[in-house]
Design goal:
five-stranded antiparallel beta sheet; 559 residues; disordered C terminus; 31 strands
Length: 559
């Protein structure tokens, strides 16, 4: 089950993403050529520190309300009188530390992840549900979502993950929906949301704010970061990917179109003409058989239903189970068509240190059913990375993985990827970023959804003696880089490039540098500090603390 199954709630509202953008330019990592102007807002043709140089890195839900619920039996309601959950809000950690939005690398900014995010369901002052959002990157980014806008404001993307470590407080609840959700999703929930219409204008009152709509439902027995279903591929550049599932219990198709059609700057569809969901009957010369009308005249199709629509199948269930789905416009032009055979990796973004490995899990399907005993091919591909310089994706020898893997009877396969020391090929940027494309061996790499792509950051190795006995000269270049790239930190809290400041605040810096990466308090917020450099910094801070007299004053003791 996933976010498309029932019981399911949908929500919508706003989100805030406040990344620092000084690090968006790879050349800004070069301490030797860094200029103070790189920490200023861009002016005309002068990029400076891009559009948000003093960003905090915070990511938050804003004014997100539960809009609809679908019960286990498939019935739905949007009426608060029917179920009190419809008066509740989706929130993050509130007044506590916010989650962080983080790029994998300055040269791979198309898989931004959310770290340390807490998701809560709140009724007034009461916390009904609180859970940890498992770190996940966005996918299916679409740069033509709002074509009348400019720059990245035209884009949309989706996040899908699971909610874990859930704390419930529904003992006295009279919500039918919450009781059903608890019964099936007590330990783990699926969450997916679409983000778009992001405001990058620093003069706007909505600066760093965008629109969000999403869904939460029970999660088990499926991948965490995508839904096994019936993927529909665009047949024209004017639409984007979609997904559907066949709900056998409800004998219905559940279709997600939240990130599939272009919108005006006000968020309404560019063209709200109704479309048709149909199936191609292969037993009858691919005759088109309509399943139902996609009603874009319904004003709540996006903000209330989160772009999720359900179509009863009645006597067409067997037909749909064995034939591909299509979506047609009013002139019977095919806008989206199901990719009959499909393969997708679950987790697709990794950080590796020399000697470490990661395991990628693949799931392959044919019309939504497991596609077993077939071959997946993999190959290095850095074409999605940039901007350059420096050069990306080399040396290729730093990554080791098989070129082919065979799916088991259940349509699953695992691939182990092992990293070695890339040898500092980018000079002023630690490590190297790599991409791996994959597809079924019977298909072309070019026929993939471009988001079905594995991104890996491999860090450089640091000599053991420097890790064990670091001096300020050893860690200064690292600290200088962070001071350059994150002016909010260096100007407002600690100037990490100043030895006296670092030494005087060694205890609190040790506290945040030693946090788990999933903690929102972890430093650096960018999560781009290697194992070796992290150990070197902590050893330096420990040496400072060991040399301090018992009565020495450090900032941490004053907090």
């Amino acid at each position: 089950m996933s976010y498309l199954n029932s019981p399911r709630l949908t929500f919508s509202g706003l989100f805030q993403a406040d990344p620092s953008t000084v690090n968006n330019d790879p050349t800004h990592f070069n301490n030797e050529t860094f200029k103070p102007s790189f920490q200023k807002m861009q002016e005309g043709k002068n990029a400076n520190g891009w559009w948000n140089p003093e960003g905090t890195g915070n990511w938050r839900f804003l004014n997100c309300e539960v809009k609809s619920v679908t019960y286990r039996d498939g019935t739905s309601t949007t009426n608060e009188a029917d179920d009190p959950v419809l008066s509740m809000s989706i929130m993050d950690s509130g007044t506590k530390v916010a989650g962080k939005i983080v790029d994998l690398d300055t040269q791979q900014q198309m898989v931004s992840a959310l770290w340390g995010l807490v998701v809560r369901l709140v009724s007034g002052e009461k916390e009904i549900l609180k859970a940890d959002y498992e770190v996940a990157s966005f996918t299916n980014i679409w740069m033509s979502r709002a074509p009348a806008l400019s720059g990245d404001t035209t884009a949309a993307a989706i996040y899908q993950s699971v909610l874990k470590n859930i704390h419930w407080d529904i003992d006295n609840s009279d919500s039918r929906f919450l009781k059903e959700l608890y019964l099936l999703g007590r330990y783990q929930l699926s969450i997916q949301f679409t983000v778009d219409l992001y405001d990058m204008d620093h003069t706007s009152p909505q600066f760093t704010i965008g629109r969000i709509t999403g869904s939460i439902a029970p999660q088990y027995s499926e991948p965490s970061f995508f839904t096994i279903g019936r993927p529909l591929f665009p047949q024209t550049s004017k639409v984007n990917y979609a997904n559907a599932i066949v709900d056998l219990e409800q004998r219905a198709i559940v279709l997600d179109l939240a990130n599939s059609f272009p919108v005006n700057p006000d968020g309404n569809l560019l063209n709200n003409s109704n479309l048709s969901l149909a199936v191609l009957d292969s037993s009858d010369n691919n005759k088109t058989i309509e399943i139902g009308v996609i009603d874009f005249q319904d004003p709540g199709w996006y903000s209330v239903k989160s772009g999720i629509m359900s179509f009863p199948l009645a006597d067409k269930l067997e037909l749909v189970e064995n034939n591909p789905l299509i979506i047609l416009d009013q002139n019977n032009n095919v806008l989206l068509e199901e990719s009959v055979e499909y393969v997708c990796a679950d987790k697709f973004v990794f950080y590796l240190n020399p000697g470490e490995s990661c395991e990628v899990e693949f799931y392959a399907t044919s019309l939504g059913k497991p596609l077993g005993n077939r071959t997946i091919e993999l190959q290095l591909n850095a074409s999605q990375f940039g901007p350059t310089p420096p050069q990306v994706g080399w040396p290729e020898s730093a990554l080791s993985f098989p070129e082919r893997v065979t799916l088991d009877d259940a349509g699953k396969a695992k691939v182990t990827i092992t990293a070695s020391d890339p040898g500092n090929p980018r000079g002023y940027i630690d490590g190297q970023v790599y991409g791996i494309a994959y597809n079924l061996s019977t298909d072309l790499f070019s026929n993939c959804n471009p988001s079905n792509f594995i991104s890996i950051l491999v860090f450089d190795k640091v000599p053991e003696d420097k890790i064990a006995n670091p001096t300020w000269d050893d860690i200064q270049p690292i600290m200088q880089q962070y001071a350059n790239l994150y002016p909010l930190m260096s100007k407002g809290i600690f100037n990490l490039a100043d030895k006296e400041v670092v030494d005087a605040n060694a205890e609190i810096l040790k506290f945040v540098f030693s946090k788990d990466k999933t903690d929102p308090n972890y430093m650096p917020a960018t999560r781009d500090l290697s194992r070796d450099k992290s150990a070197m910094i902590l050893n330096y801070l420990n040496s400072v603390l060991n040399q301090a007299a018992p009565n020495d004053s450090v900032t941490f003791k004053k907090l």
